[in-house]
Amino acid sequence: MEDDPFDSVLNLESQFYDEGHALGIADGTRAGHIEGRVFGLEKGFEKFIEMGKLHGRSIVWANRLSRARTGTNPLIDTPQEQKTPQPGHEPTLTEPTSKSLPPLAANVRLEKHVQTFLALVELESLSTQNKEDDVSEFDDRLKRAMSKAKVIEKLIGEDFQSGAGSVSDGGRTGAGDGSIEDISILHARH
Questions:
Q1: Which residue among 1, 55, 75, 183 is least crowded, i.e. fewest CB within 10 A of its CB?
Q2: Which of 61, 163, 183 is nearest to 117 (CA)?
Q3: Segment of 4-8, 83-87, 92-96, 153-157 carrying the highest mean pLDDT
Q4: Kind and range of the H or E element at 61?
C-alpha cells in the first residue's frame, strides 16, 4: 500500500506544535539567562548598597569613639578660624559647615562591638565573585553586620531606620498613616 498523500496534512498540527515547542524552549532559555543576570545584578546591587550604608555607619561610630578617647575629631581637619562663624555671615553651599556628632561615651564593651562591626563591613575583604561560597559568605557577613549594628544602636541609644524597601526590612513599605494595611506601626513588645 502506498503512502497516503494526506498524511502530511493530518500530522500538520503535531508538526507545528513540536516546532513551536522547540522555538519556545530556545527563546525561553535565552531570555531566562538575560532575565536571571539582570535579576542577579539588581539583588547584588541592593546588598552592596546595604553593606555600604553599614560601612559608613561603622566609620562614623569608630570616629565618634576615638574622638571620645582623644577629645579630637580625626575626620574633620578644619582650622579654628573656620569653626567660629562670623557675626551676620550666612554660610554658602561651597563653604563647609562645622556640625559634628557628639562623641560616644567610652565603653569597653561598645568599643569591642564597633571593632567587630568594622571587621564585618570592611570593603577590602568582601568578595565580589559570583561563586556560591563567596555569595554565602557575603550574605552571612551582611546578616551578622546588621545584627551587630542593632546591638550598637541599643548600646548608644540611637535608632536608625533603613530606607523603605531595603534588604534589611524585607522590602516592606507602609504609608505610616495607621491604617490596617500599614505594617510600619507594628513594633515588638518588650
A1: 1
A2: 61
A3: 153-157
A4: helix 12-70
The residue type found at 159 is: D
Calpha distance 58→115 (Å, rounded): 9
Return the SS3 of 47: helix
pTM of the model: 0.60
Predicted local distance difference test score (pLDDT) of residue 101: 77
The x, y and z cell numbers of residue 127, run together, are 568578595
Phi-psi region of 69 (alpha: psi -120 to 50; beta: other; left: phi over 0): alpha
Instruction: Tell me the mean pLDDT in the region 123-136.
Output: 88
Q: Which three cell numbers stand for residue 109?
A: 564593651
Contacts 24+ apart (CB under 8 A), 145-153: 145/51, 145/54, 145/117, 145/120, 145/121, 146/50, 146/54, 148/113, 148/116, 148/117, 148/120, 149/54, 149/57, 149/117, 151/113, 152/61, 152/110, 152/113, 152/114, 152/117
CA distance linking residue 144 with residue 13, whole number of Å: 58
For the record, the C-alpha cell of 68 comes out as: 571620645
The whole-angstrom separation of Cα 49 and Cα 163 is 11
pLDDT band at 176 (very low <50, low <70, confident <90, very high): low
